[in-house]
Each structure stands twice: as C-alpha cells, then as structure tokens.
Amino acid sequence: MVHLLPQDRFIIRTPVALPNVIASLDAHVEAPKAFRWSYQRNHAPYEGSVSESGFTMHRIPQGRNSFIPQIKGRFETPAGGTVVHISMKLHPFVMSFLVMWFLSFYSGALAIGLSGEVANSEALLVLGLPLFVLFIFWMSFWVEVERSRKDLLNIIGGHVTRH
Question: Distance between CA atoms of 21 and 118, rounded to whole angstroms?
Fold first, then answer.
C-alpha cells in the first residue's frame, strides 16, 4: 500500500539471534561524520548508530540526494529469533523546505492569477507545475524507501510483514 505522506513502517522477522543481527547491522553502518566528501567510495553504505535496543541510520548518498529516508528501528526478541520494527520518514528539514517552497510559489501564482493578466491556459500550467514537481519528489522518496528496504532485508535476513 502506498501512503500519501512520506513515511513507511514494516517489520522484519528473522530466526537470527539479536547479537548476530546487531553485528550484521554494525558491519554496514558507520558513525555519522560532520563533513563527508560527496563522492568518497571507501565507506559503509549507511551512517548512524546501532545499540541493543534499536538503531537510527540513513543511506550515504552518492552525490546529492535529499529524499533518502531517515530509518529508525527497534528490536524485539521473542523465542526463536528477532523481530525488527522499522520506520522510514523523510527528513523534517526537507519536509519544511517543501512546504515553504509550495506556500511561496502558490501565493505568488495566486496573486498573478487573480490579477487577470494571465490567460486561463497559462494559469493552469503555472498551477500544475508544482504538483508535477511534487509527484517527482514523492516518487523519488518511494524509490529510496524500496532501495533501503531491500538493503535491510539483505543485511538482516528474514521476511517482511507490513505494519
């Protein structure tokens, strides 16, 4: 199921014991750095932190990519394995930027549209462009969510249950 808001939650169930799951995640996650070269290749695929109770991380992009989800997970240890509850959300700064950009664009477009100086067909193009851009951004986020989900399945193992 696809959500309109940029967030996703799911559960990975695995027969692997918790210490092995943590070790597997640790092998693919490095500590956050204040400054990182965009095209540096010798690093782990994710940055963040992993502890006994859970983890927070995000994929290290190759170049610029603002739509990489912030990943949070917590562990449960039922008999016979580990359950990992995972949530992925768009970074709050990116959400704030998008809201401010749309508000400023549409407030200007509304003022121009109400002035009567623009033809109706041109006004529809101006009002439709941000919706098209939003659709592209929305798709970019969901592509990144799917990539991170596949990576986590490969790292942790097991199978996914929808939340």
Answer: 60
